[in-house]
Amino acid sequence: MFEYLIFIFIGAVLFLVADITRKRGFDKLTIDRYINKNKLNINEEFTITTIVENKKGLSISYLNLKQALPSNVILSRSFEGEDLYKFKIGKNQRIKRSVKGKISKRGVYLFDGIEASVGDMFGFSFNTKKFDNYNEVIVYPKLVPIENFKVKNLGSLGDRVIRRWLAEDNLYIKGIRDYSVNDRMKDINWKASSRMSKLMVNEYDSTSNMKLSIILNVQCGEPYWKNIKPELIEKAIEMSISLTKNSIKFGVETGFYTNAMLTGMSSREFKGVFPSLKSFEIVAEICARIGYDINGCLDVYFKKNRNIFDRNTVYVLITCFMDENIKSQISAMKRLGINLKIIDVSCDDGVYYE
Asked: 3-class SS at 68?
């Protein structure tokens, strides 16, 4: 009988301790999460550090942390898309835990709050609380060597193309050189070609300091809300950021505009990135934030934003779609003296025309 009473007493004490732990477990318990890098390239390694601190004189025998992972996030250890962590923590103890991760696709990733569960040592009952701890991670688009983009009527993008767009001034011919397959027929110097018995082309120099701005159209068809082609948009984004990088490297002030909706940023507030030699980082972030929804058809975008265009800038339109309305707006802008180049990526290789 005495042994039975002792057994009941011990059980009651354990139950009382477990109940107190469960009820008071969240008192003076802090959980913080830190990510060492909030701007990454695709598949660049980063570290998530979780710090749990129990600032009271009561141990927690069962503590379970759970945080759902955004898609495309790969941790060195995780379970079915969640980061799980089960452990016990002593009184006035601080535990630090780090895990490596990678993200396989460009975009904006929001790491939500952490769900914590405190229970008894047997795991029979527990209380749950969510700790608000939000982290935003931006993953830049892949930078592709500009020469890898092959466009009909243009050949490979690169320094030669940018130089031709920006440095041409037909009033100032600085010399001639041998013809290449990427040169335009109108640049052939027929007199020099006849004299040298081979095709020669004029080389031009510039009398003004031109700038370049890229306009990215993510509209893929009509109606725009029904025609969404992620692969096409991704190709246009990669071309845009690679062209921006190469242009700035070439010493050209470069800007960026788009009719895309931006994740985590008001599209109404985004007026564009004005040409600068220091614009690449913000252009890369905008390209990371671009979603598949659009802020308006391109022809409407042109009508609303006529004030951004000037004659001292070369505009390169990279578009996922072309129709008569867009062509009409392009023609109207050219009649105003706007220098606009078009790369239509909706075809297999893309088509260039002026």
From this structure: strand
Same domain, 195 and 103: no
Burial of 344 (0-12, 13-18, 19+ CB in 10 A): buried
Angle at 352 between CA 337 and CA 216, to 5 degrees: 75
Question: CB–CB of 103/73 below 8 Å?
Answer: yes
- Residue 252's domain comprises 146-168+209-353
Q: Is the peptide bond before 145 cis (omega within 30 degrees of 0)?
A: no
CATH classification at residue 52: 2.60.40.10
Percent of the chain having pLDDT more than 90?
30
118 and 156 both lie in a single domain:
no
Number of residues that this document lists for the chain: 354
43 and 121 fall within a common domain? yes
Best CA proximity match to 32, nearest among 43, 56, 48 = 48
The pLDDT tens digits of the residues spanning 19-41 come to 555 567 788 889 999 999 999 99
This prediction has a pTM of 0.77
Q: Are residues 153 and 102 in the same domain?
A: no
> Any bridge partners for residue 53, and if so which?
30, 94
- Nearest partner of 29 among 124, 98, 127, 125, judged by Cα: 127
Distance CA 164, CA 160 (A): 6
d(CA 195, CA 212): 37
Kindly state whether residues 56 and 201 are assigned to the same domain.
no
CA atoms of 164 and 277, how far apart (whole Å): 19
Give the count of domains, the chain: 3
CB 25 within 8 Å of CB 88: no
